Amino acid sequence: QVQLTESGGGLVQAGGSLRLSCSASGRTFNSDVVRWYRQAPGKEREFVAYIKWSGGITYYGDSVKGRFTISRDNAENTVYLQMNSLKPEDTAVYYCYCNVRGTAYWGQGTQVTVSS
Question: How many degrees, rounded to 5, is the angle at CA 114 between CA 111 and CA 116?
Answer without folding.
Answer: 160
